[in-house]
Amino acid sequence: MLRWIVVPLVFALIAPASIGQVNQAQVRVDKASGQLLVQEKPFLILGGELGNSSAGTSVQADAILPAIAKLHLNTVLMPVAWEQVEPQEGTFDFSILDHWIDVARQQNLHLVLLWFGSWKNAFSEYAPAWVKSDTKRFPRAIGADGAPLEILSTFGTETARCDARAFAALMANVREKDREQQTVLMVQLENEVGYLGPERDRSPEANREFADPVPRALMQKLIANRTNLSRQLAAHFNPQGKTWREVFGEAANEVFMAWRYATYIDSVAEAGKKEYPLPMYMNAQLPAFLERAGEYPSGGPHPYYINIYRALATHIDFYSPDIYWPEFAYWVRKYQMPGNPIFIPEARLETAPYNALYAYGAAKAFGFCPFGIDSLHAPEKPGDPEPAVMQVYAALDSLGQILIDAQAANRTRGMVLHANSPRGTQTVDLGGYLFQGSLSRAWSTGALQVNDGAMLLLESSSNEFFVVGTGLTVKMTRDPDTDTNIASIASIEEIVRVGSQWKVVERENGDQSNQGRQLTMDPHQVRIYRLRLYAISR
Ligand code: DGJ
């Protein structure tokens, strides 16, 4: 049965300041190292995001979290809907969330909360009915035909105030329940925001603002940051202009929406941080090739106009891409901006095992999360298939601190290849060597053995490397920028961690190493290999 808790608003808003608890969050992101720190210790999120309708009841926690814990995840991203926690104005009910936190703790899982407040994927479905039905108090964005959309307007001052109030109550609740244990690590503000329609809101208020000068504060920040603007923004930015159209040209509609969303959402984040300053981030739906603003959510925190968010939304700690497009590495790189730690809150489930290795290895991500993780199942009996993501997470978990230290010291690399990748081989450099990977082929026919392969490469000590991967063949040469020596393989071992020791399962040689000339990974299972190399002079 639901336990109803009426949180007096006055308490929710004034209590923390009066009892001095504001700075008690023991989780923070370190923007310089890109790490997530829990009680000042780096923590790697091996995550997964639940389906949109998977976290709306308490019984779902009992069914879903124990099953997920078996997949070797350590963190689950779960929606928390505004309509769920504030079904009537001013009456808050956190009983479902509290139960999820309790069950997560029992399962040794952490949580990241996804605040589905005013917007989820542009639309406003998760706002309470008392908000959605009162279009006077909570105005809608307006389409080109003058009709209201199912999208709350970014100009709704009451909407922003009520969203912020609900979010503050949520954060106060998390603080009271969780500040000792840090089961909840972070919070995502809204979800893939932006305006769907012809580029921008066409309400009278939006039209009026659009004809006005661009706010001075935004102009000053963009001018100060002029050398770091995205290519798209720099191409349009005219600091001599006054109105939105004059300053941003063809990009004006979208930049205008980015300004509105950034300002509104920052006010929500600010209210939440006053209660409990956990790390807060926003996720972006990425524009597809040739897609126009408004076909993808216009003004969302995607790379083209992210400078607007970074200039205005000072309470947002970082920005994250939801990567469903095939060019995973391309989109990750777009978010590797100084001061923006890499966290992938959503990624396609099918390619997740490969992309995870790239994210942690190449981009030093502190977290990666396939979407719809609750649709995966750990094996129930011997012989049942083990999801590859589970194998990846188990391997990364066994590397533990070695991986965290190597990431921080820039001693990791990543590689992901698919049968349809634009190039058949990729090369990374590490520790004085070049590692050239390609998808594994049958020795006799040369036919591809797999369509996907990936590795995370880690330099553990001089001439020694750990490789977590599957489906690749890797050839090593000396890096010509280091010396002109000749590289050779000393040994390749498949290893597993048993307690604090590494146990050698198999030494790879003969046919398995192409007579000592390459690392040949298992095409179908994720394994950990220890590779020792040496170099001789010519
Ligand atoms: C991206 C959204 O952020 C998720 O909530 C979910 O709707 C997925 N798309 C579905 O593919």
Outline the structure in words.
There is one protein chain. The protein has 538 residues and is an alpha/beta fold. Strand 1 and strand 2 form a beta hairpin. Helix 1 packs across helix 6 (157-178), helix 2 runs parallel beside helix 4 and helix 11 packs parallel to helix 12. Residues 1-20 have low confidence and may be disordered. Helices cover 30% and strands 27% of the residues. The structure holds (2R,3S,4R,5S)-2-(hydroxymethyl)piperidine-3,4,5-triol (DGJ). (2R,3S,4R,5S)-2-(hydroxymethyl)piperidine-3,4,5-triol (DGJ) binds next to loops.
Strand content: 25-35%
Characterize the main sheet.
8 strands, parallel, barrel
In which range does the helix fraction lie? 25-40%
Mean pLDDT: 95
Shape: globular
Q: Taking strands numbered 1, 2, ... along the chain, how are they ordered across the largest sheet?
A: 4-5-6-9-10-11-12-13
Q: Total strand count, please? A: 23
Structural class: alpha/beta
Uncertain residue segments: 1-20
Ligand set? (2R,3S,4R,5S)-2-(hydroxymethyl)piperidine-3,4,5-triol
- Count of individual helical segments: 16
CA-CA gap between termini: 77 Å
Radius of gyration over C-alpha positions, nearest whole angstrom? 25 Å
